Amino acid sequence: MDDAIQGDPIRGTARGTAPVPLSVLDLVTVGEGRTASDALRTSVQIARLAESRGYGRHWVAEHHSMPGVASSSPAVILAHLAAHTEHIRLGSGGVMLPNHAPLVIAEQFGTLEALAPGRVDLGLGRAPGTDGATAAALRRTERLGEGADDFPQQLAELTRFLDDDFPDGHPYSRIHAVPGPVQGPTGRPPIWLLGSSGFSARLAGVLGLPFAFAHHFSAQNTIPALDLYRESFRPSAVLDAPYALIGVAALAADDEKEARRQVLTGALSMLRLRTGRPGLVPTPEEAEAYRFSPMEQEFVDSWLHNIVHGTPDAVRTGLDDLQKRTGADELMLTANAHGGDVRLRSYELIADAYELPTSVVPS
Prior knowledge:
The chain is α/β, with parallel strands linked by helices. The protein has helices at 3-6, 36-53, 74-83, 102-115, 132-139, 144-149, 151-163, 198-207, 222-232, 256-274, 284-289, 294-305, 312-326, 340-353, and strands at residues 22-26, 57-60, 89-96, 120-125, 191-195, 211-213, 244-252, 308-310, 330-334.
């Protein structure tokens, strides 16, 4: 059995010449002229490639009301990926817990654990994963701040449902999340906390949980958040020492010019999202032809500065430098581009740059 299953479910394995384990964050992006079906097929291809080349995890992230992504239902996508892979860890990066009743998430991920025993991660965030109006539609309330403020309580409730251990006398003591422990001995997905600021960093530390930081869109907060996580960390039954993963936007191409051309599509897509004009990810031709205002160009330049892109050697150097600066225990790479073939090629090139194995199979 592969070490991702029989070994530590949290601490990954560094392969090849990579300084730390490498993983994949898949936003299931939908490009102009493509469909959600195309994006989901690409997700399967990426998961299979990642599995065969020794990437440790493949996570998908919850987003809503964004035409350029097709990942509104992580549990559904993960079940599909589980049916098309054998041993890579699959998980949410993350489920936005305030959007859901904790019992529902316990049931969904208990089902995933039953479908793919020993290889499911449950990453949780407290942001809505969308704009305020959509969050209100999801949560059926306009009082959105309460969801984020109640996150520790929701997390505690979810954990008790997963462990089936509400104390006697608790209103939920006779409620069981199924599939789950009430049906017999079973494993359960390890919980990760996700964040882009200090709140979840501190909470993950206090609870002794693994922490994943969204460096790919909040780079200025990365080192402060990781420092806070490590300073706050208390050993737990889950971890005896901190374990921090960071999400990194990275794209490799055969030459630097092509890499720049491809990442510009994601930058324009993000610009449109941030200015209230969300849409499908534009083509490289559309991005090249777009005339940026000075303010827009400043945003794009800043955005591209935090994307590790270029030739495979340049990307490897950039990732190595980032890992040294942050001390991250794992790098989770997300390739944002219009075409699925470009994203697949990037993961392949990065694997080659780090001399990852050409075929990883369960033993």
